[in-house]
Design a protein that fits this description.
CATH architecture of the largest domain: 3-Layer(aba) Sandwich
Number of domains: 3
Structural class: alpha/beta
Distance between the termini: 39 Å
CATH topology of the largest domain: Rossmann fold
Strand order of the largest sheet: 10-11-9-8-14-15-16
Number of helices: 16
Oligomer: single chain
Mean pLDDT: 83
Helix content: 25-40%
CATH superfamily of the largest domain: Methylesterase CheB, C-terminal domain
């Protein structure tokens, strides 16, 4: 099993030990060295050539900032700063870290004293960032799927929306700095960012891009040539008059602000008179919203794998058919500049195929082994009510089914990529996504015939409407577990 080599830099022996134990929870990560100072970090990067560096900022001697600067000049390596909001003698260290080349800022609370799920996400995030440091011929191949022919609006767009996550700060800075200063559209940005780092990020983006950048507020009205960033723990929505609506995130939401919230609102309010861009990031946030924008006639673009730090979010959009174009980061700005004028699609250089060429092997790969025959049927339960989700899970497991549960429908595409589902039990009245949209995602992943059973407390008239909207095979009232078992058993045979 290939391992990604990690260098830990921190002057605290306890912090280094916790980080080492945490990172080595992932069998793909191997801590190959530890440094207590910036000088040691630079020396070890030269000697060990790690895939990833975790960097503390407050250390004796050279310090973290200077170490980042030297490493990025001598041997560019993905560097993740693990820090808290930090200001020394009036210097914003987190801002300086981004400015000098750090790829990502991670709060120490995501590692030290965090819950199991938060630690798991942290480790996965670092593994994906470590992979971004591979040479192009070492990375897995990825071919852009041909986008289905959907007519696009020829009207002049009114708003550009951009979503990003892991690796996003530097990608956003590069994209925005490449846009002309007289770019004619307002720009709305959603970047997954810890609250403690938000002010540093906005300042970094303003200085790096050369454009006016500010936090979006409830009184904001989008103006051409300005960049508006969604605030932490607030969902950013666009109204038809280009004003902003901010709402708190849904209960138990994992990601906020959400790119999907922005993109869905743009599709609803502006129809085809908008542009959506999805950049590097882990997970699948933004994919469903970008698909909705495309279906409404908007122009939709994703960053290609070769230029992504993490291809998760763009890949999810590509697999849904949400991307009209798959473009390298350094070509997105000139493309947007032409599209912002309206009219026909500008020409862009075609992507090479494959985007990455796999390392040649000495012998042809063996034929894949036949898939094992599954003895149990797999049921996916989608419900954002934890108590109902648990009742359905226990009931169906006792009846002999394998069960997957999902309380966040925004993670549906990712779940479907990893599992072959036989029956779906769906609560159609989800808070974050309509049941019909969940069904569209199922169908877009080749599950055109998977039976769907609605699991709901809605009244008869509402349930009848949802049955038609979701093209469901049947429904069961919550509170009747025996009926749920009978319905799922019938659908699974």
């Amino acid at each position: 099993m290939a391992k990604f080599r990690v260098l830990i830099v921190d002057d605290s022996s306890l912090s280094r030990e916790v980080l080492r134990r945490t990172l080595e929870l992932d069998p793909h990560l191997s801590v190959v060295g530890e440094a207590k100072t910036g000088e040691e970090a630079v020396t070890l990067v030269r000697a060990l050539r790690p895939s990833l560096v975790t960097m503390d900022l407050n250390m004796p001697g050279m310090g973290g900032l200077k170490a980042i600067e030297v490493i990025m000049r001598e041997r560019p390596t993905p560097i993740v700063v693990i820090s808290e909001r930090s200001s020394t003698s009036g210097v914003d260290l987190n801002y300086e870290a981004l400015s000098r080349g750090a790829l990502e800022l991670v709060p120490k609370s995501a590692v030290f004293g965090a819950g199991d799920e938060e630690v798991r996400r942290f480790v996965e995030r670092l593994r994906l960032l470590a992979e971004s440091g591979l040479d192009e011929d070492e990375r897995p191949a990825a071919r852009p799927a041909p986008a289905p022919p959907i007519p696009v609006s020829t009207e002049k767009p009114l708003l550009l929306g951009i979503g990003a996550s892991t690796g996003g700060p530097r990608a956003l800075a590069k994209l925005l700095s490449s846009l002309p200063r007289d770019f004619p559209l307002p720009i709305a940005v959603v970047q997954h960012m810890a609250e403690d780092f938000f002010d540093s990020f906005v300042r970094f983006l303003r200085d790096a891009s050369g454009h006016p950048v500010e936090q979006a507020t409830a009184s904001t009205r989008f103006e051409p040539g300005k960049v508006y960033v969604a605030p932490p723990r607030q969902e950013l929505f666009v109204r038809e008059n280009l004003s902003v609506k901010l709402l708190p995130p849904p209960p138990n939401s994992i990601i906020s602000p959400s790119v999907d919230s922005l993109f869905f609102s743009m599709a609803t309010a502006l129809k085809g008179r908008s542009i959506g861009v999805l950049l590097t990031g882990m997970g699948d946030d933004g994919a469903q919203g970008l698909l909705r924008m495309r279906r409404m006639g908007a122009r939709t673009i994703i960053q290609d794998k070769a230029s992504c730090a993490v291809f998760g979010m763009p890949r999810a959009a590509m697999e849904l058919g949400a991307a009209e174009h798959v473009i390298s980061l350094n070509l997105i700005a000139p493309f947007l500049t032409q599209v912002a004028k309206g009219g026909e699609t500008p020409s862009i250089p075609p992507p090479s195929a494959p985007i990455f060429s796999a390392r040649p092997s000495a012998a042809p790969a063996p034929a894949p082994a036949p898939a094992p025959v599954r003895e149990k049927k797999l049921v996916l339960i989608v419900d954002d009510q934890q108590s109902d989700l648990e009742i359905a899970r226990v009931t169906l497991q006792r009846a002999g089914f394998d069960v997957l549960t999902l309380d966040n429908p925004l993670m549906l595409a990712r779940t479907l990529r990893r599992n072959v589902v036989d029956v779906v039990v769906l609560e159609p009245e989800l808070k974050t996504m309509k049941g019909a949209v969940v069904v569209q995602t199922l169908r877009s992943h080749g599950l055109g015939t998977v039976p769907i059973c609605l699991w709901s407390s809605a009244d008869e008239n509402t349930l009848s409407t949802r049955l038609r909207e979701c093209q469901a095979s049947g429904s069961v009232r919550k509170g009747d577990p025996a009926a749920l078992v009978r319905a799922v058993t019938k659908l699974a045979t």
